[in-house]
Design a protein that fits this description.
alpha/beta, transcription, Arc Repressor Mutant, subunit A, 8 helices, transcription regulation, 24% strand, 12 strands, phosphorelay response regulator activity, Rossmann fold, single chain, transcription cis-regulatory region binding, five-stranded parallel beta sheet, elongated, OmpR/PhoB-type_DNA-bd, 2 domains
Length: 232
């Protein structure tokens, strides 16, 4: 039985660049669809249901930030931001609103292909442990990609969910920020450890932690999912 091609949506208003990206991705057995502005990107996304989105920030009609936000309202599909902006603020902002990775222009096209494959490997259903973790006031269900805090379902980005699952799977174990970056974002991630801090802060705001567990900062080291002994 022939394997179905993974579909990549490329969003950029530079026609020549999109054609170059296609020329590198298609020989790697990817199907590529293209949109040249933000409004068209959302239309194509709904019509084609891609497996991954390569999304430029500076696009007309609706910029990449807004497109990313709109996609995240309906899907956890991996998003790699393409940007000429290399400032740390832009990288952190992209990750905060739901992007999974970023690559700064100009980039090596072979690196782009490698990043696409790495992200897809991390997010493929075959690579996710279909398990459920239950603590007081918290249910992490990767079978359904659902998180419940108390009686409420909590909306988390895929990265937030993976980070929470990893910490909760290893109660009372301390992880450095670098360890968490490598485990959740991949060894090839080139961003700052500040990325971990941002995601931990967002998890704390979204979850109603009882006295029996907490996501604790271990000063000078990193973080741990601290659980009282009778709840481990």
């Amino acid at each position: 039985m022939k394997n179905e091609k993974m579909k990549i949506l490329v969003v950029d208003d530079d026609y020549n660049l999109t054609q170059l990206i296609k020329s590198y991705l298609m020989p790697e057995n990817f199907e590529v669809v293209v949109a040249n502005d933000g409004i068209k990107a959302l239309e194509v996304f709904k019509l084609t249901a891609p497996n991954l989105v390569l999304l430029d920030i500076m696009i007309p009609k609706l910029d990449g930030w807004e497109v990313c936000k709109e996609i995240r309202k309906v899907s956890n599909v991996p998003i790699i931001m393409l940007t000429a902006k290399g400032e740390q603020f832009d990288k952190i902002l992209g990750l905060e609103i739901g992007a999974d990775d970023y690559i700064v222009k100009p980039f090596d096209f072979r690196e782009l292909v490698a990043r696409v494959r790495a992200v897809l490997r991390r997010y493929s259903p075959q690579g996710i442990k279909t398990k459920q973790i239950i603590y007081p006031n918290l249910v992490i269900d990767l079978n359904e990609f659902q998180i419940r805090s108390g009686d409420e379902e909590v909306e988390l980005t895929r990265k937030e969910m993976e980070l929470l699952y990893y910490l909760a799977s290893n109660p009372n174990q301390v992880f450095t920020r670098q360890q968490l970056l490598e485990e959740i974002w991949g060894f090839d991630f080139t961003g700052s450890t500040r990325t971990v801090d941002v995601h931990i802060e967002r998890l704390r705001k979204k979850l109603k932690a009882p006295d029996s567990w907490q996501i604790k900062t271990v000063w000078g080291v990193g973080y741990k999912f601290e659980v009282k002994s009778n709840n481990v």
